[in-house]
Amino acid sequence: MIFLDTTILVSAVDRSDSLHDDGRAVLKAVGEERSFRAVTTDYVLDETFTLLRKRGTTTSVISEVIGRFLISRNITVVFVDKPLFEDSLASFRKYERLSFTDAVSLTVMKKLRIREIYSHDSDFDLNGIVRKERLQY
Fold first, then answer.
1. Position 42 pLDDT exceeds 90
2. CA torsion sign, 121 to 90 to 36 to 45?
3. Helix 100-111 / helix 82-94 crossing angle, nearest 10 deg
């Protein structure tokens, strides 16, 4: 299982993003490959939608692309509840360079014992985490 970060989702949707092809390849793999299991959070989705809107992507395009992504049986979205929020505060305090959304992602990864993340964000270059930017076959 692998975690999907905002940067992968944004690059997959935003055609002007320099890493668009990489992001699209990851989302395509999630949608098509039965052995490819991924996790993300509602916070990552919120951050993705916000960044895409700021970049000028229309709501209909965001809804269409992400909607197709969300119906995949290979993706699990973890919704932040009070206990997860409180646990994430510890990660937020420990890793000052992480945003709170990233701290939530890291906490989910630890809870689910996920050691790999698809991300273009070097803030995840932490001990025990394997960050990938591209699909590796």
1. yes
2. negative
3. 110
Q: What's the CA gap between 88 and 34, in Å, rounded?
A: 30
pLDDT tens per residue, range 86-133? 999 998 999 888 899 999 999 999 999 998 888 887 777 665 566 665
Residue 15 lies in a domain: yes
- Cα(121)–Cα(18) distance, rounded to whole angstroms? 14
Q: How far apart are CA 18 and CA 21, in angstroms?
A: 8
Instruction: Answer for the pair 12, 24: CB distance below 8 angstroms, yes or no.
Output: yes
pLDDT score recorded for residue 74: 86
Domain that holds residue 65: 2-79+115-130
- Assess contact for 38 and 76: CB atoms under 8 A: yes
